[in-house]
Amino acid sequence: MKYGLAIHTSSPALGLSIGSSEDNPRYRSWELGRETSNLLHPYLRDFIQPQTWQDLGWIAVANGPGGFMGTRLGVVTARTLGQQLNLPVFTVSSLAAIAWQLPHHGSIAISMSAQRDEVFGAIYNFSPDTRQLTVMLPDTVMSAGDWETQLARLQPAHHHYVPQSANLADTVVGVLALARMADERGERPHWEMALPFYGQHPVVASSIGK
Question: Of 34, 45, 73, 189, whose CB is crowded by the most CB atoms within 10 A?
């Protein structure tokens, strides 16, 4: 039985989750702020117990949008683990992980503030029967006016705004769940394909929920 390990560092908190296809995942989050870079590795080492590194079958990481340094830290850590353990690394949109855990069904828009009065936004459709999250509008950085245009065009049933103070680490369970579904579909992304999403670059094809 192989386990999946998920890492979320795209906000000023650390979120970790681990689970297999045969049990309920466990997770923890810590408000570490700027200490995340110093404490991530010891927290990770202690968290996976009683499992070991050899029990892992894949790694998942929230690759943004979110804080620049935090997102980069999580992705670099996931890439390093994937390389050292020869494991696939799934990248999962921070916005998709939020959408996965919200108590809504149907279409839902997720947005958060970006720099220069811009917005990170994405729109998904969630089916509670199949537990599938379908992308209607992938993660995009745009002006507030363009975001309103997208909302008017796609008319999502729900709109969830994520404040800058939000603790995204608690959505690490969504990161694990979305990566697990990709793993069950037979996807095996190489660790080199795991890249952060900051909004200035094109969407990475290997990202989940983007």
Answer: 189
Residue 60 in tokens: 């998942």
CB 80 within 8 A of CB 142: no
Question: Distance between CA atoms of 97 and 169, rounded to whole angstroms?
Answer: 10
Q: Is 13:30 a contact under the CB 8 Å cutoff?
A: yes
Dist CA 86 CA 91 (whole Å) = 16
Helices 172-184 and 94-101: crossing angle in degrees, nearest 10, is: 100
The residue ranges of every structural domain in the chain are 3-94+167-208, 104-162
Q: Is the CB of residue 179 less than 8 Å from the CB of residue 194? A: no
* For residue 205, pLDDT beyond 60: no
Is residue 197 over pLDDT 50? yes
Confirm whether pTM is higher than 0.85.
yes
Q: Please state whether beta strands 3-11 and 56-62 pair in parallel, antiparallel, or not at all (unpaired).
A: parallel
Q: Which CATH number applies to 104-162?
A: 3.30.420.200
Fold of 3-94+167-208: Nucleotidyltransferase; domain 5 (3.30.420)
Same fold, 3-94+167-208 and 104-162: yes
